[in-house]
Amino acid sequence: MVDGRMDLKKVCWLLLAAAAVSLVVHLVTLDAFNKREYHVYGNDDTSASYMDLDARKDTTSTWKKRDYDLYGKTVDITGATIDGELHNTSSDTIGDWTLRINIKGDCLINQSWNGEVEIHQNVGTAKEVVQRLNLQNYELDDVKLEYLYDGDMLIPLKAGDYVIYYPNEKFKEVPLAANDSVKIGVIFYYLDSIDLSDYTLTFKYDRAITQGPTFLVFAVLAVMCFIFALTYFASDIAYKRAQNEMELRKSGLSWLSDMYEAIYLVDLSSGDMTPISAKGRDEHSRPWRAGAREFLGRIIEDADSAYADVISEFADLDTLAARMAERDSIVCEFISKTYGWSSMRFFAMDRVGGQLPKTIICTVQDINEEKSELDRIEEQVNRAETEAKARYAFMVDVSQEVREPLASMVETGKRIAAESGEEGVRELAQGLCSEGEDLLAFVGGMLDYSKLETGGMSLLPVDYSLKDLIEGIAERARTMAAERGISFQMDVETELPRGLHGDAKRLEEVMYAVVASQADAIEEGSVKLSVFGKGMGDKAHLLVSVRAVESGASVQARAHADEHVRVRMSLAAGLLGLMGSEFKEVQSDDGWHECYFEIEQDVVDAAPVGEILVEGARS
After folding, report:
1. CA atoms of 50 and 209, how far apart (whole Å)
2. 531 and 496 in contact (C-beta within 8 Å)?
3. 184 CA to centre of own chain
4. HEC states along 251-289?
5. Taking a C-beta distance cutoff of 8 angstroms, is the pair 145, 119 a contact?
6. Which helix (DSSP H) or strand (DSSP E) does residue 320 occupy?
7. Is 522 buried (19+), middle (13-18) or exposed (0-12) by CB count in 10 A?
8. Taking Cα atoms as reference points, which of 68, 79, 71 lies closest to residue 146?
9. Which pLDDT value is given to residue 126?
10. Which of 17, 76, 409, 593 could staple 556 via S-S, CB 3.0–4.6 A?
11. Phi (first) and psi of residue 603, to 5 degrees
């Protein structure tokens, strides 16, 4: 492509030089042509431009002046209108012309139109006079020529005298365009006859710069120069674009060379292989001028027997283009007998439209380190899964062992509280029941947490009453708050739908876990549960917020420092994530910490939940 561009450039310069020379020749030729003076004698109609001068033929064009005093003699003289028609049958414009009429016998000139005449009178004698006049507009006192006047001026002429006619530009007698003609007129008087056949037309052509054969040569050369220059510039732009693309490719391939031991460019039609970056072991073992098939054949031979069929199918050049019809790259990992784990990848290049690739890039890479790292990570994952399963099994066993005694203790406490007549005993029993229920909830939570870790947790959606759910949480929270000596408050949007569908058990666990965790994070103050939202057709959007307030303390820092709180909140966050939501926290400088989440539930009963009242809690 470079040689072609250089040839085009040389042709452009040669054509430009030839066009410049032809232009100079054209200008010189044109100047010489326009300066050349042409002479046509008489009515020579063989010339491209000629004058036809003759007397007008109609009956009114000749007349008599009778009893005219001609130098003391009384004579009759004849007047005649002489017409001259200049014909320009050439392809050039006549820029300037004159007509010389040679007088062959005695006569008198009276009039001419539309131009001026230069009269040469008494030529060759001492009385010779030359004067240029406009015979249609003159002052008699200005006439220097000899003349006769009887109210009409007649200028006598003799053999040897002559008249030169100068055309008038105002009356478009000059310039005279190609293939055009113009008429002039002169009036002569004579005694017997007049002979005006001896006349000479003198003229110059005024050829335009765009006319003439030399201009045609210049125009052809200029057009050819322009076409070749345009072709050169187009090829130059394409070449520079290709160079830029090549630089980008080189840059990209240079970057790839840091990743691969060897990079080759493979022509699928010929099987030729060109090394681009071959610093690795494959280039050292490749025979000089070995083609792609021989090179790939050596890799196939070196592959472990377990991968022989796979790598043979992958490296088949006959089917490679079809396999990459809709893919930019394909890769195969195999074990080399010599180098261990290796990777071979093919990249499609220069794909045009929907055609199959004709050129591909082949890369070879050692991946022993990557495989070792993957094995190490896989071993860690397997070990973590095994440990999680062991913890899960242990927690299941502990939960099963502890749950029944705890449940029995709670039932015993409830019976004592109901049957005992002593106030102190009833309060102690109620405290045991509360602690026992918390322990049962904690054991259940630990079991759920283990299920979350092992992926064994799933939602159990049912129809439930939002009012009942909130009242149950509020009752438990009131009891817990009273035991801790803190205040519990509640704020519920009364227009929320009453009947919802979702995993009520898990939602209750999450809400109570947040309330309990916030309560555990403060020593005194208050905890407030707020439930807001709105119904949107068959969906209800709930916003659940729990705010802990303790003046002068950083509730958030204490909550994050408490291991018991962290475990409980981790369980709640896992359950909430299972339901498609997440916790968010807000900490104020005024000593309060708020934890909230949003969740959507299906609506089964759109009746409003109404006001919820729980003893000891303000709604």
Report:
1. 24
2. yes
3. 71
4. HHHHHHHCCCCEEEEEECCCCCEEEEEECCHHHHHCCCC
5. yes
6. helix 317-323
7. buried
8. 71
9. 94
10. 593
11. -95, 130
Alpha-carbon distance of 24 to 40, in angstroms, equals 30
Q: Report in angstroms the alpha-carbon separations of 516 from 298, 520, 548, 553.
A: 70, 6, 10, 18
Closest C-alpha to 497, from 612, 609, 611: 609
- The token pair at 440 is 């049962």
Which tokens in the block code for residue 595? Answer: 């934890």
Q: Per 3-state DSSP, what percentage of the chain is helix, strand, and coil (rounded to 5)?
A: 40, 30, 25
Q: Are 168 and 114 in contact (CB under 8 A)?
A: yes
Task: For residue 498, report the phi and psi dihedrals to the nearest 5 degrees.
Answer: -75, -50
Side chain identity, residue 514: V
Specify the pLDDT at position 56: 87
Element (H, E) at 129: strand 129-133
Contact 187, 28 (CB under 8 A): no
End-to-end CA distance of the chain: 86
Q: Are 48 and 90 in contact (CB under 8 A)?
A: yes
Residues 334 and 343: their CA atoms lie apart, in Å, by: 6
CA distance to 207, 346, 401, 489, 551, per residue, from 559 (Å): 105, 56, 30, 20, 15
CA 578 vs CA 396, 573, 600: distances in Å = 21, 9, 13
User: What is the phi/psi pair of residue 429, to 5°?
Assistant: -65, -40
Contact predicate 595/583, CB 8 Å: yes
- Position of tokens 């021989």? 294
Which amino acid belongs to residue 562? D
Taking residue 84's Cβ as centre, other Cβ atoms within 10 Å add up to: 20
For the chain (619 residues), the mean pLDDT of every run of 10, in chain order, is 66 88 91 94 93 88 92 93 95 94 96 95 95 94 94 94 96 94 95 93 93 87 86 78 59 62 83 74 52 87 91 91 88 91 88 81 87 85 70 59 66 71 69 65 58 63 92 88 87 92 90 87 87 88 90 54 67 83 81 87 92 60
CB of 320 within 8 A of CB of 360? yes
Contact 157, 104 (CB under 8 A): no
Instruction: Say what the pTM is.
Output: 0.42
Please, which residues bridge with residue 360 across strands?
Answer: 266, 348
Joined together, the tokens standing for residue 464 give: 């439930």
**Among 534, 546, 514, 513, CA closest to 600:** 534
Query: Vertex 345, ends 340 and 346: CA angle to 5°?
Result: 150
- Residue 128 contacts residue 88 (beta carbons within 8 Å): no
Which distant-in-sequence residues (6+ apart) come within 8 Å of 331 by Cβ? 343, 344, 345, 346
Beta strands in 437-575 (DSSP E): 462-465, 487-492, 497-502, 526-536, 539-549
